[in-house]
Design a protein that fits this description.
It is a single chain. The protein contains 14 helices and five strands. The chain has a five-stranded antiparallel β-sheet, sandwiched between helices. A hairpin with a 3-residue loop joins β3 and β4. α4 packs antiparallel against α5. It is α+β, with helices and mostly antiparallel strands and 296 residues long.
């Protein structure tokens, strides 16, 4: 994923400045991450900033500079498809970033009214979890609450927590809070900084899809206040979905593991995802998972 320009994090006490200002922030960080040379523009003289200027981006997208300024300033809602596509091409956005741009630029289409109530885990997903006895698996809600896990998933990801805690909304662990605020979880990831960046970029994607979710906004605000690392990552406006990849873990009981994960988006659940973790056949990580299964 392309490196993003750094800028001063917004006031953490204002976590829900969306969607209009979120669109402006996203456009500014994306154009700041592109140099004129990368998009084939010739420049003369000294530039105060390395990224694209507003007028350069407008030229590349084929739109007027005045209209682009209104977009950045949040003064033009529900931009047309042709405008969004032109900006996505000019900014060389990846697929996840392009979808995120649509959600921010078309807030009326993205907005979904959500009650400020804890999520209810999908019964079908819970049954599937319970049937997967040999594969670590967890069920995450759109706010990254652990809604359920099977015994092996609990033993792998959160063995220091009460195994029954996901069943109680008042005690339900949150994956983002654990990642940034819990020292045991931080020690679990051998490349914590990569894991944290990926988690925040995925959360930003979700936040644009659910701009009216008050509990999600409160989670972002609380983490921005309590974790400077989260606040810095949130300000980058990186966007990426966590659909599959590799986790490098250091488990306190079985040591180092290299596991492949898959995140399955569950239909009709408003953002719930089932994560599974598997090891390559015949690898030391597979042996380690076997030891974990036999753990009392």
């Amino acid at each position: 994923m392309r490196a993003s320009a750094q800028h001063t994090p917004r006031d953490p006490a204002e976590p829900s400045r969306q969607p209009a200002n979120e669109l402006g922030d996203f456009l500014r960080t994306r154009r700041a991450a592109l140099t004129p040379a990368e998009v084939g523009l010739t420049t003369w003289g000294t530039r105060r900033v390395p990224g694209l200027r507003r007028e350069e981006l407008a030229q590349l997208a084929g739109i007027s500079i005045n209209y682009y300024i209104r977009l950045e300033q949040g003064q033009s809602a529900n931009a047309g498809d042709s405008i969004i596509e032109a900006l996505a091409r000019a900014l060389r956005l990846a697929e996840d970033e392009r979808a995120h741009l649509y959600a921010l630029a078309r807030p009326a289409a993205a907005r979904r009214a959500r009650s400020a109530r804890p999520e209810t885990p999908s019964p079908g997903a819970v049954r599937l979890l319970e049937s997967m006895r040999d594969v670590p698996a967890v069920l995450l809600g759109r706010r990254n609450d652990f809604l359920a896990w099977n015994p092996l998933g609990h033993a792998l990801i959160a063995s220091h927590l009460d195994p029954d805690s996901p069943a109680d909304p008042a005690r339900r662990p949150n994956q983002m809070r654990l990642l940034f605020l819990d020292p045991h979880t931080r020690e679990l990831y051998r490349r914590w900084s990569d894991e944290a960046a990926l988690a925040v970029s995925s959360l930003r994607y979700t936040a644009a899809d659910y701009p009216d979710d008050r509990l999600l906004a409160e989670l972002i605000g609380d983490l921005s206040i309590r974790s400077p690392e989260f606040a810095t990552l949130w300000a980058r406006h990186d966007v990426r979905l966590c659909s599959r990849g590799t986790k490098l873990l250091h488990h306190p009981e079985i040591g180092d593991l290299e596991l492949h994960y898959e995140a399955m988006q569950l239909p009709d659940t408003h953002g719930q995802r089932l994560f599974t973790y598997t090891a390559e056949a015949g690898s030391p990580s597979e042996d380690a998972l076997t030891l974990l299964r036999r753990r009392p």
